[in-house]
């Protein structure tokens, strides 16, 4: 599903964000990406959906070398990838329904299909009764649920979650985690960058730890391993 071979990322200022990364994430896995601030986690995540390009090395998504994908084809690549951000990134003038539908409209899905699928995913994330609400009328947890619905509405092969509980209180954080577990149980690969020690140590999954741009641990049912 996702492979990185000897991947380096050096920014124009000379900072080596990632150094010699080798990793393989199989279809259906749930992986945490952990490490101290500035370790390279965000760069690692951004490389997966081509927000950043590697300086060297090979990144394969379902066998496609993403470094070789031409810029105009990147939107097509991203249709197979769902991304959830810490700050939700919802369009403020659109309702919950419209925010989710926008992702399907972008790929020119039939109107009838859009209606049924959007209602389906909003039901899945527990917001069937809030689909007409604007983001400003939703709590932080509800906004993140809309963000997740938008990320999965086109049935992506894998979901990237970059600190999805970072702006949420503990109760909402757990709700989002249970939702991500449900999505994973339905067959979607989940890669989640997080600083939430309690979640990682309670809901045991594969843990990839990055420090100073290198993978220092890769453990099945691993622990967070850092002090808050």
TrEMBL record:
It is a peripheral membrane protein. GO terms for biological process: cell division. One of its GO terms (molecular function) is transmembrane transporter activity. Residues 2-227 form the ABC transporter domain. The keyword Protease does not apply. Keywords: ATP-binding, Cell cycle, Cell division, Cell membrane, Membrane, Nucleotide-binding, Transport. Homodimer. Forms a membrane-associated complex with FtsX. This is Cell division ATP-binding protein FtsE.
